[in-house]
Amino acid sequence: MRLLCTYVLTVLFIGFILLPNESRATHVRAGEITTRRLSATSLTYEITLTAYFDEQRGREAAATTTEVDFCFGDNSTEKVSRLAPIRFLNGRTSSINIYRTTHTFPGPGTYTISTFIVNRNNLTINLPPPDQSLNISFSVSTTILIAPNLGLNSTPVLLNPPLDSARVGQRFCHNPAAYDVDGDSLAYRLSRPRESLGGCRSRFIPVYQDPTVYSTTSESGGTPSFTIDARTGQLCWDAPNRAGQFNFAFIVEEWRNGVLIGEVTRDMQIVVVDQPNKRPLIAGASLCVEAGTLIQQPITATDPDGQRVNITAFGGPLNLTADGLPLPAGLSISPEYARLINGGIPLAQPGTATFYWQTNCNQVRNQPYDITLKVNDVVPRGTVSLVSFATLSVRVIAPAVRNITGRASALAGGRSIQINWSAYGCGRIVDAGLGPDTTKLIVYRREGSCSPFNPQQCVTGPPAGLGFVEVGRVPYAATSFTDTTALRRGVTYSYIIVARNPGDVNNGGLGLPSQQVCLELPRLTPVLTQVTVDSTNETRGRITLRWARPLDLKAGDLGAPYEYRIQRATGLTGTNFVTIGTVNTNLDRNVIDTVYVDQGSSTSALNTTANAYRYQIEFFYTDPTTRQLTSLGLADAASSVRLSTNPANRQVVLSWQTNTPWSNDNLTHTILRSRSGPNGPFNIIAEVPVQGPNTYTFTDTGNDLVARDGNTSRVLTADSSYCYRVITRGRYTDARLAVFGTLENYSQISCAMPTDTTKPCPVSLGLDSLNCASLTPESQCGQTSFTNKLRWRQTSGINCDVNVVSYKIYYGRYSQDTPALLTSVNAPTITFEHSSLTTVAGCYYVTAVNARGQESVPSNKVCNDACPYFALPNVFTPNGDGKNDTFQPLRCARAVESVSFVVFNRYGTKVYETTTATLNWDGRASDGTELPSGLYYYQATVRYAVLDRNAAPQVLKGYVQILRDNVSMR
């Protein structure tokens, strides 16, 4: 008993020494670090710590904190002085303290900037013990990415001071009003407060408790919660159940183009009061306006207690810091700045303030401006004011280009469409450290439609789903654009223009689309209507062409005689056109179309087996002046149908392609198959509805789905070849070409042999596992090598192969491991003994392999676990008599991987420490000296060789008596 009392008094004395005194009074309530790059030619950053101090209970300590240590994440540090003067907030109950410096980093990379202040505010309930929370230091950090493509990037700044109060039983919310001048996307997540470990090291405070520990129910009586909205940053505690002071932390992430480029941590404190006052309520809104719009948005707040309300707002457009000063250059938006009319004054409720902002083109950006709206009630003396928050989200978008017109031209030798518009009034030039970027005007085009569309409010860029694609970009000062890209006669073209502002993804963004203008080239050339493969051969292929006369050209319009020149190129998209034939014509309207059969020549064989071919028809008239044949233009090129056959498991996958001016979509294509080779006979086996350009496929499983020409259904085998043809059907989408009806074309013949990739049937696996409950302390005593016995059986099924030649055994030491190949055994063996193991813990599965090398899916996974056992005595006699001379486990320890063992004397002083696989302490101190007889306290941390890699160690705490006076234990 005397020894115990001495130990307790010693601990109490040490605790007394650590108690705070008034010279180390409390002061730090909250803070965060922000940065901005100052120069595009150097890596110099302005770095600011904004700290909030308690001026009620720590005024003297706050006043004396004139400098703090900054760690820059590049192995350099600096003592940074506080800027003067200190600014007081909340009726001088708190102050905002700014510590600012500049630092040049050595090169691109990721840097974590941190700082700490020695004492936190005292009496913080969720930093137990609360009466000593000032002994915990305050530490915050900010991480930045320095990269060449980020330019003059700044971290977001937090414009709302974290100094509000909460009420017991009511939902409390805080919004930091984070603003990023670069327009980067912000995301929010909860974190935990940190403390300094000396130097530049820090850690999460181990004793920190989540605020929900101090919650019973939510405000509405449901489950309590402590959350942060990942998009808006609204942090809410619903709801505290006791009065007092609480700390927590959250992180503001900065994202650009899907990459995390920085994060800022705010550590903050709130005070919860227990009083009848109810929090006021405020409503947010979401606006989207064109640049140049004057915003006059009413903001209304109410108070359940009927008290007056005070409405304030925080956000980049207001150009005010957390302490009400103008934002520094480089962080503010271009004027004119927003303001809150009737904000910051008591209002009879329901109170209304007006958010007033004359927007302009400099404020266009892709991300919305989030304005944090705050209301607090105006309460009698002695009552704590409560707050609520809402968000006013304002997106400023670029206006549309106006007065768009167009003109089409199809003169001999060229096709063009010229678009004109009024000068764009919202262009600008921006340089964010990556070189100047200017507003561009993007011209979009769609083919085949001039259906009207109405640009929707705030839906920027080209309208989705209507088929508009970009065809050009011009400077914002331009007022015209000429399109010459792959224009075809007889096709309707619709054009719109969209402004792309500097910064595009961040501070820029796409503007509203213009109205559309629709045009069509006159059809003064022939119209191809068929390219069909008649014969598939490597040297004697044959393709038939058909085309119609120029529909908008009459005999006599141009000088006769007229001539068609047939041109051919190799491949679906071939452009190496050569003339292969000519046809004279008199443009007789009674002639429906012209036919030409291409059979190649002695110098240019037509290999329809290996190639698709593409054709175009050029039309010539006779110039009346020169009497020379002159080209009026080319028909839009069309290719033959190209069929591909790909072997698969007991099936053949067909896919086909075309490249034609008519559409082959939304019609039925026909599949023909021959089981007798390329010479037929061919049977129709399927009619395939084709919906879109990526659906030209069919899988032949052997079935004949069309019975009208006979049923040829049979299973496809890997030792037979099957041949196929496809008939495509298409139509011109131009209504004026509907006269040509449905256009049918045959592909070439393509043959293939199926494969057979049937996997073996899986196996069912079993394992002889330990029964820990049946083991005695002496079981496995002294055993160092173990064996796991596996057994399995082969399953069967209609979709798998039962013919197995071998089995593969996979093993993973831990349950979290993906088992790796251990060994394989030949069939018909169905057992395996995994021996020479240091522990039975491990997991297995088995696969079957057939003669083709196909491996089955894994069997069921089976696992074995060890049966740990470890116990220690409470006395030993290290007197050299050979009996009980060392402190070691009782009986036999099982499955022990390591033991960390620490011994303390009765005064709490550590005298011995070791980490070993087998504990065998001889009663000596760490320096080798013999310890005297007496009572000692130990802690043994035992890790076991079990299945779970992350299994927590067993911690044994107890005492042991050392007896040396020639005492032997029998």
UniProtKB/TrEMBL annotation:
Output the superkingdom of the source species: Bacteria
- Matching Pfam families: CHU_C
Q: Which InterPro entries match?
A: Ig-like_fold, T9SS_type_B
Record protein name field: Gliding motility-associated C-terminal domain-containing protein
